[in-house]
Amino acid sequence: MRVIGTIVEDESGKPLSGLRVRAYDKDLVFDDDLGEATTDAEGNFEIDYMEAQYRDINETQPDVYVRVFDASGTKLLYSTEKAVRRSAQVTEHFDIRIPREKLTG
Fold this sequence. Notes:
By secondary structure, this protein is mostly beta strands. It is built from one helix and seven strands, in the order E-E-E-E-E-E-E-H. Strands 3-2-5-6 form a four-stranded antiparallel β-sheet, with no helix packed on it. It is elongated and about 45 Å long.
């Protein structure tokens, strides 16, 4: 299974390279870490994960969301946690636009 996508600056559409993207499976108590990737020169990322990383009692499909951090991995720039993709497909694609003010602020 995998999470793929592209991250661009909202105002210009310019690809954002070097950002760290982390994917999670939303659970009731603790969210499962599905993996991390860094965006390439075109702003693309890909995170591959296995069923064992999200499978809990009675859980057959992950509920996926992503968080985007700066290059150091410390400053949160964007999150889809409030729009979790329930019962995610084998491949989930995210097109993310981050406002310039988030990148410089």
